[in-house]
Please model this.
Amino acid sequence: MPTMKFNPTTPSRRHMTGPSFDEVTKFSPEKSLIATKKKNAGRNSYGRITVRHHGGGNKIKYRMIDFKRQADESAKVIGVEYDPNRTAYIALLQNEAGKKSYVLAPVGVTDGDVLYTGADADIKPGNTLPISAIPVGTIIHNIELYPGKGGQLVRSAGAQAQLMAKENGTAQVRLPSGEVRIVRLDCKATIGQIGNVEHDTIKLGKAGKTRHLGIRPTVRGSVMNPCDHPHGGGEGKSPVGRPGPVTPWGKPALGYKTRNKKARTNKFIVKRRGDK
Model:
């Protein structure tokens, strides 16, 4: 997917790039598959901010994606759409009974293609099979962690995982981060790499575009008061005053591992990301 450049009519336009939407073939959502999406601006049920820098943004409708692909059936692609809720594009499918559903659109899938679900499906982008029926070395995405729960891993634009090995009822999958993880063979996965591959090369160009995405400004801790941040206070520009930078709650901000060392799922990780 090539990106689109703009003429430098304003300072913000000079370096701005955007998606060309070459893969998109349908420009209005399927009304039966959309739902209203309530904004909470990072606040929990008590009204307290639990996720900072959230708020505002364009009004959007949620597209109901079929991550499970439970029924063994064939379905025809009748459109590829932009989804404001995710970086990946989505494909609208229609099965032989006329039922429609959304799935993540892999690279190479376009209008008129027929996608299959089931153990007998071909190894072709967009088809969904149990991992037991996928050959070792295949590129996959939308991987289940628990059979029947639906895909939870590898769902963003351009992401891909690789099936590395199969033994003793489990498979080893190398994730985009480099982590190698154990997954059950009866979990499902979809063949291919997710589309919109060049999404990470897009330059927003101006602050307003991040506000459209619902992202609010981030204030440096060093310009806050001491009651608001450990870096705050002091006369003029002051140093951190600690051995290293910390979060607003006093935890080390650089290189500090937050994962629980006794996490139940540690046994499923064969190789950590970044390990040699």
